[in-house]
Amino acid sequence: MVYMRLLLLVTLTVSITPAAELCIRNEAGLDAQTLMLTMHHIRGHQELLGVDMAQGCSASSIRLTFRTVPQAPHPQDALGATRVTAGRVQPEILIFAKSILQMLQGASAECKARALAKVVAHELSHYLRQTKEHGDGLDRRQFDAEFLTSF
Length: 151
Ligand SMILES: [Zn+2]
Hints:
Layout: E1 19-26, H1 32-43, H2 46-49, E2 52-55, E3 62-67, E4 80-85, E5 88-96, H3 97-102, H4 109-129, H5 145-149
Parallel strand pairs: 1-2, 1-3, 3-5
Antiparallel strand pairs: 4-5
Helix pairs in contact: 1-4
């Protein structure tokens, strides 16, 4: 008699990557293509940031507002800012789109979107890591045109 033994190995893969919802306000008047490409490039940073990014507005969304240029109390050379209240980095991000795009004269829409997304990812990193500190890569303190448009 031959006994056949069938071993069924069932692997349940459960995605545990937390999700972040971005509620986008376009006060800078960015065109639809630039916004769409920017969202695409923001998603390109989600592995590094450790969250899956989606677009939408609810009570738990991260508010992402594209403004033109910084106004007080933000320094004039700021490209983005994240609100800090009572020692907590809040889910409120400002991106100074005109300031960023002024550094990229003549750049393609693709390049501009990549640059905007880098600044968004930098600010998201402050919020997700709950730190005001800076480091390397996307967490560097200052972005120049070369870094903004690099891959
Ligand atoms: Zn920063």
